Amino acid sequence: MIPMPPRWMIFTGAVAALALAIPPFVIARVRATPDANRPVHIFFDMDFQPKFKTQAVNPLFADGRTQRPEVQGVVAQGETRLDAHLYEGVVGGEWATTLPAGLTMNEQFLLRGQERYNIFCAVCHGYAGFGDGAVNKRAMELMSNAGGPVDGTAWVQAKSLHDPLVREHSVGLLYNIVTNGIRNMAGYEAQIDLEDRWAIAAYVQALQLSQNATIQDVPPELRDKLPKDVAQGEGGSAGTAATTTTAAADTTEVK
Q1: Which residues pair with 95 in a beta bridge?
Q2: Would you say 110 and 248 are in contact if contact means Cβ atoms under 8 Å apart?
Q3: Torsion angle, CA of 175/177/180/183, rounded to 10 degrees?
Q4: pTM of the model
């Protein structure tokens, strides 16, 4: 049998245990109690820095202001945006009908545009561009609810990209719409890279051509590969998106 330790040892251990338990309770209490005084910092880290905060007084400058006005004529590197064709889709005050210098219309460019279109645009305009995307369909269902729009839903029917008016848009105007938006549609400049916005504009025109092409739009060397009913219908629909996309990819100018 293990002998009991002396009573003074038991008493001393109990007092020590209670003493060790006090600091955690004190710390928890201090952390949970609001205090107007500045807290004690054992390690300062970056809590206190020699800096000027917004709207603070700064005696370094004659006007005493911390915030400095912009220097006239200075722009951030890479943000001059002097190329109106590239950044605005405008050439000589008119909407551009060609791609900016440095961008080439080819199959890879159109496929990139298709990929970006399917991600950002198809949800409203639909994969074929008829304004029948999943989001638009759901919104129109909520708008047509017998008891009125659900939860105050407000929505405008997504535009069909095959509308005669939209088909007249040049590639520069389409790029500008993707960038800045139009009517109730928001712009996508913040979400989509500049080159991808041009690729989307080019793909939209290829998509429009796929549904509104004529036999004259198909290169002569490819017409023999078309179905007979299409090939014989001079002036009729050329039929497939694949053929018209190939035709569009062979030119650097889009209408």
Answers
A1: 90
A2: yes
A3: 180
A4: 0.60
User: Tell me, what's the pLDDT at 110?
Assistant: 94
Distance between CA atoms of 40 and 138, rounded to whole angstroms?
57
Listing DSSP states for 35-63 in one string gives -SSPPP-SS-TTSS-S---TT-B-TTSTT
Q: How many C-beta neighbours within 10 Å does residue 160 have?
A: 18
Mean pLDDT of 102-131: 92
Q: What is residue 254's predicted lDDT score, i.e. its pLDDT?
A: 44
93: alpha, beta or left? (left if phi > 0; alpha if psi -120 to 50): left
Q: Indicate the pairing of strand 94-95 with strand 185-186.
A: unpaired
Mean pLDDT of the region 44-71: 86
Looking at the predicted structure, is the pLDDT value of residue 252 above 70?
A: no
| DSSP string computed for the chain | -PPPPPHHHHHHHHHHHHHHHHHHHHHHHHHHS--SSPPP-SS-TTSS-S---TT-B-TTSTT-BSSPPPPTT---TT-----HHHHHSEETTEE-SBPPTT---SHHHHHHHHHHHHHHTHHHH-TTSSS--HHHHHHHHHHT-TTSSGGG----PPPPTTSHHHHT--HHHHHHHHHHEETTEEP-TTTS-HHHHHHHHHHHHHHHHHHH-BGGGS-HHHHTTS-HHHHTSTTSB---HHHHHHHHHT-SB--
Q: All domains of the chain, ordered by start, with CATH? A: 85-212 (1.10.760.10), 215-250 (no CATH)
> 98 pairs with which residues across the strands?
253
